Amino acid sequence: MHFFLCKRILGLEKSCYQEILFSSLNKKLLHNKTIGLPANCATLLPSFLTSSLVDCAVVYERSQGYCSRLNPVIMEDAQVTGLPLKVVVDKLNLFAPKSLAESWDNVGLLVEPLRPKVIKKILLTNDLTEEVMEEAIELETNLIISYHPPIFAPLKSVTTKTWKERLIAACLENKIALYSPHTSFDSVKGGVNDWLASAFETTEVTPLVPAVNNYDSYLVEVVLPNTAKGLAAANELQSKWSVVKGELDGETDCQTMPDTGVLKLITRCTSPSVTKLVDILNSTGFGSNEDHIKVMKYEKVAIPGHGMGRLCSLKHKLTVEKVVEKVKTLIKRPYVKLALAVGKDINSAVSTIAICAGSGASLLRGVKADLYLTGEMLHHDILDAAHNGTHVILCNHSDSERGFLEPFSNTLANKLLDGKVQVFVSKKDKDPLITV
Ligand SMILES: [Zn+2]
User: How many domains does the chain divide into?
Assistant: First the structure.
C-alpha cells in the first residue's frame, strides 16, 4: 500500500486527513506534522496545498518500509510563500488610497523591519495595545494592521520607558511590520462608515464631507514650431524632463499638429515640477513666454462615495428603539448610550441617520438628521444635538469601528491577497471602557 507523507502541514487533525482534501475549513494549527494520505488522494494534493494553510510541504512515497521523494511538481505547488511586504502595502493602498486620509492623520506603513519582507501572516486590530502585541508575537505575525496609528505624536526615542515606544521596539525586535489606515478606511467607499451604515436598510448613503481629488497637479503644454530647431528642442525637453520624471504623473506626449505647423508637448506634473519644467524650457532657447508654454491647474473634484461620515436615508422609517436594536446587533455589544431629542421619545420615527465612526462631534455638528450615530461625543455637544431635535446614539469610540475588521479580513485575505496570506483578527483587541 502507498502513502504520501506531507511534512509541516499547518492543517487539520491527523484523524481528518482525508477531509483536508475536500475542505479547507475548520483548520487547527499543527506545526511540523507528518500525515499519511491514501494514494488515491494524491491527484488532489496540489490544489489543496495551494489553497490551504500549508507553510511548506514535502511529499514522499512510502513503499515497503522506505520513503522516497515524489513528484517535484507537487512540491512546487505546495509552496505557499506569502507575498512581499511591498505587494501587500500596494494592495492596501489600492483598497483605500492614503490620499483619502485626513491631512492631520498619520497613515500608511509606519514600521518596516529590515527583514523579513515576505508576509505570511497578518494580524488586524483596531488598537495596538501591549496585549495585542503579545498575541501578534505568539502568532508569528509578519505584519500588524492597526486601524488607529500607534505612532501619532512624533517619537523622540525608541526605548522601553513608555508603552508606545515598547510597541515599536517589539515590532522591530520581532521583525513585524506595522501599517495603519485610519481615516483612509473611514473615507473609502465600503470602509468603516459604510460598515456602520450597513446596520440599516437604506435608499441612499452619501458622505457628509465628500472626498476630493486633492492631487495637486498641473497640465503643462509646450508649443514649438515644427521646424528642425523646434524638433531638436522638443527632443531635448523630453529627455531632460525624464530626469524629473519621478515627480511627473504620466508620460510626456509629443504631438505634431499638421494644420498649424507646430509641435505640442503635453505632460502632467505636480506643483514643484512646474518650475523645473519651465527652467528646462528656458535652456532650449525658446524661453517661457506664453506663446510657448501654458500651465493649467486641475480642479478638485468630489470622488463619488468616498468621504468623511455618512448620511443615511432609511428605506422605511424606524423607531428610535428599533435603531438602537439594529446598532447593537451590528456592533455585537449589549449596551449603547442614548440621548433622546428634546420633546421626543423612544417611539419617535427616524428616517435619516448621520454617521461618524469614532469621535463624531466636530463632523456631525449642525448636520440635519433625525439621529446621530457615533462612538463618542462630549456632554455639551450631546446637549446641543438633543436641543436641536436630533437623537444621539453613542457606542464607545472603538466599538463604532472594530466590527469592520471581521468583513475586511475576508476581503483582504481572499480578494486583495488572493488567499496567499493568512489574515487573523485580534482576539485581544477591545474597547478599554466597560459598562459595570
Ligand atoms: Zn477612532
Answer: 4
